[in-house]
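Work Package 4 report. The design task specified in the project plan requires that, given a folded chain encoded as structure tokens, an amino acid be chosen for each position. We show below one input record used in the internal validation round.
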């Protein structure tokens, strides 16, 4: 065999090494070495090539010949790479503790969960680029479309990942369950970093997750995925106020003026320190050079317009919330919108039965449903809190989905109950 694969095999045999010995010395998996030698994969990236050359103890001339044949092979096979991770954002800010946890979790499965728009995908992509060494077999990314009406089936996800690993189509099983077994075996025999973004539930993930081995899996989901065992869970909260202001300053030049620091902080507060909202607000400010921070602040201060202001192009805070809202049961939707009646920043579980006219135990189940989808935050044992922007979305759904008479009756029933509790 000529080309890169043949040259690699010749050098390995000349060094008196088996594939297993070369894999141990270089940190590149046996499977990857085998695929390279047989021409079943593309030429390796420079860091993988350097690891192989070092383990083989090649001369400078042999290294140059090996690198040249790798470049030649890459030029012959230039095509879009499947499952390529997205580009990390240039102005990523904060999340130091979370990045540290992820970077220390090599060879593990990590679940990053949180409410819509809190920056789960941005975090794992940034962590993968910034601090995840030890994956010479590359990085893969797959959007599982967990909040779509029809999430990606595990068998189809396995097929796409196998193709990204350059497994010959003839070797990919026709049966979906067998394909899932194949991808688990492939990942178990390699040292890959796999990002499974936007997971729907445990049933979608279990068939794809490899056992202990060299690969690391980073999962994002709006759900906590409590049914998965042996995983590290990282829950994301909105950014700290100083981080929110820093993000706005990094996006919009107007926000960098020290004289408007107070206004920038207020814009961040009205965005609920939610990364998606902050990025949209910063982009609106940056693309309207005639605007001041005060102009943006005036628009956000109007609660009836705030969600509309926090929308640009095909991206919007309300649209992100709506994807989770669509996953709710009918009872969950009724509770979600009626919670907009509750005064104050948080509430206890008993008021839920008053709002819905349901059994208290059923009400607790509905609360758990909202928490699971990131539409409500649990505060201690039996108290709950809306994110400010999600509360506005709930109020919007209440106006749209319930007639005025029903809204008045529910509010009066709640007020009578609150007066009785106070008495």
């Amino acid at each position: 065999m000529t080309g890169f694969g043949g040259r690699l095999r010749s050098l390995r045999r000349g060094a008196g090494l088996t594939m297993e010995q070369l894999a141990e010395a270089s940190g590149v998996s046996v499977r990857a070495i085998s695929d390279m030698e047989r021409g079943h994969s593309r030429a390796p990236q420079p860091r993988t090539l350097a690891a192989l050359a070092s383990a083989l103890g090649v001369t400078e001339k042999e290294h140059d010949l090996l690198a040249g044949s790798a470049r030649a092979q890459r030029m012959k096979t230039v095509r879009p790479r499947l499952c390529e991770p997205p580009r990390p954002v240039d102005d990523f800010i904060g999340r130091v503790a979370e990045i540290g946890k992820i970077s220390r979790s090599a060879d593990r499965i990590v679940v990053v969960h949180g409410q819509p728009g809190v920056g789960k995908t941005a975090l794992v992509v940034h962590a993968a680029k910034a601090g995840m060494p030890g994956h010479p077999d590359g990085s893969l990314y797959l959007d599982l479309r967990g909040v779509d009406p029809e999430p990606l089936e595990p068998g189809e996800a396995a097929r796409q990942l196998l193709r990204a690993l350059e497994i010959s189509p003839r070797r990919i099983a026709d049966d979906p369950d067998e394909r899932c077994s194949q991808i688990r075996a492939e990942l178990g025999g390699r040292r890959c970093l796999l990002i499974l973004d936007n997971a729907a539930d445990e049933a979608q993930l279990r068939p794809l997750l490899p056992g202990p081995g060299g690969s690391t899996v980073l999962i994002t989901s709006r759900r906590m995925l409590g049914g998965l065992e042996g995983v590290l869970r990282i829950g994301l909260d909105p950014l700290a106020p100083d981080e929110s202001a820093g993000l706005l300053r990094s996006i919009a030049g107007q926000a960098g003026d020290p004289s408007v620091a107070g206004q920038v902080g207020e814009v961040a507060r009205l965005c609920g320190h939610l990364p998606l909202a902050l990025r949209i607000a910063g982009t609106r400010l940056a693309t309207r050079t005639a605007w001041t921070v005060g102009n943006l602040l005036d628009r956000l201060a109007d609660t009836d317009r705030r969600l509309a202001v926090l929308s640009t192009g095909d991206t919007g805070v309300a649209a992100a919330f709506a994807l989770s809202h669509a996953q709710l049961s009918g009872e969950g939707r009724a509770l979600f919108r009626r919670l907009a009646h509750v005064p104050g920043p948080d509430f206890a579980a008993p008021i839920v039965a008053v709002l819905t006219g349901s059994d208290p135990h059923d009400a607790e189940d509905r609360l758990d449903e909202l928490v699971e989808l990131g539409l409500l935050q649990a505060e201690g044992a039996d108290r709950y809190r809306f994110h400010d922007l999600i509360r506005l979305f709930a109020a919007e759904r209440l106006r749209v989905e319930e007639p005025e008479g029903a809204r008045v009756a529910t509010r009066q029933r709640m007020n009578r109950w609150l007066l009785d509790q106070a008495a």
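The chain has a mean pLDDT of 90. Validation will be extended to a larger panel in the next phase.
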